[in-house]
Design goal:
Blueprint (H helix, E strand, L loop, with lengths): L17 E5 L4 H12 L3 E6 L2 H15 L3 E5 L5 H15 L4 E4 L14 H29 L3 E6 L3 H4 L5 H20 L5 E8 L5 H7 L5 H4 L13 H12 L10 E4 L3 H6 L11 H15 L3
Parallel strand pairs: 1-2, 1-4, 2-3, 4-5, 5-6, 6-7
Helix pairs in contact: 1-2, 1-9, 3-4, 4-6
Bound molecules: hexanoyl-coenzyme A and NADP nicotinamide-adenine-dinucleotide phosphate.
The site of hexanoyl-coenzyme A has 19 residues, from helix 4 and helix 7.
Amino acid sequence: MHHYTEPMLRDGALKGKTFIVTGGGTGLGKAMTKYFLELGAQVVICSRKKEVIETSADTLSKETGGRCLGIVCDVRKYEEVESMLNQAIEKFGKINGLVNNAAGNFISPTERLSHRAFDTIVDIVLKGTYNCSLALGKYWINNKINARVLNIVTTYAWVGSAYVVPSACAKSGVLALTRSLAVEWGKYDIRFNAIAPGPFPTEGAWNRLFPKAFQEELAIDKRIPVGRVGQHQELANLAAYLMSDYAAYVNGEVVTIDGGEWMRNGGEFSWIGDAISPEMWDQVEQSIRSNNKKE
Ligand code: HXC
Ligand code: NAP
């Protein structure tokens, strides 16, 4: 019996809190927002597409009975971030937390990228994250509000990855920001943590990273030790915990949720998997032992 598709925290665990979730109108941002609302939080979601963000905010409010406000905001533009923050404060009075979830990405050999394509990804992911963190941070420090920030990175933030180089550069910058500000702003009671998800099917990521043309070659679930991709609720459970007061002593951490994928594929010999038969291992062992023989 598996419980990972079920909500985990107790009812009302986020009651009285208001969070901003960037990119909260689709995919994982939407799944996290939905669960925050179910746990009693009020949530402001933002993204560039007016229709998408407003419809999602409406649907989420109706589905959960919670209060969700959709605001158009391009996180690359600091003035738009400040304006979003002001609208959020006007509506809900006080903001207690931020999830930097908005991202841009697509798979491509790096030499095919224009410098503008590189800028686009780094601007959404890294600049967007520091714009929001800075605007909210100043507000929290000036108003003496204790707060928490959750940054959504990915496992290649620390190992890097071919074919998604702008995203890898940007996500690793976001991880550095997480760890740095966790220490610097700890004294203001502002916590910074990150989640590094492995593959979780969403339209946004799948269209741009696992296109149909080579879905078979990538055989994504075969790369994952537990043999499956992630379910949105298990990510939402982890995010809700890190955003809650229960995680008050967790600061500067990055939690990987990938079924063991990066360890398996990051280790020098891990790729071998089941490719070597037991008989071949016998031969290998014999040969290694014979080389060890002391004359
Ligand atoms: C080469 C490309 C390209 C492609 C765009 N460009 N797509 N170059 N190959 N496939 C170039 C454009 O030609 C342009 O450069 C520059 O990039 C900017 O493109 P625009 O379309 O003008 O930008 P914009 O409208 O801002 O759109 C941004 C975007 C788009 C990133 C390109 O895909 C987007 O809106 N994405 C948001 C959602 C998203 O990406 N979600 C996935 C996150 S998944 P020129 O030189 O022509 O001006 C994720 C998971 C990681 O991060 C881990 C998975 C396991
Ligand atoms: P997604 O649905 O495409 O989410 C990205 C969101 O960011 C969209 O709602 C998009 O909305 C918004 N966005 C993009 N540019 C923006 C900008 N300049 N300003 C404001 N909002 C912007 O993809 P997802 O899979 O849910 O990804 C969510 C997060 O998880 C990302 O940080 C991603 O890197 C991370 N992640 C995902 C996976 C996975 O397997 N899915 C794995 C590891 C990490 P608009 O287009 O309306 O602006």
